[in-house]
Amino acid sequence: MASNVGTWMHEVADSWLMTTLTPSPLLVALLQTAEALPIFLLALPSGALADEVDRRRLLLITQTWMLAVAAAFGAITLTGAMTPSVLLALTVAMGAGIALNMPA
Question: Residue 13 belongs to what domain range?
Answer without folding.
Answer: 2-101
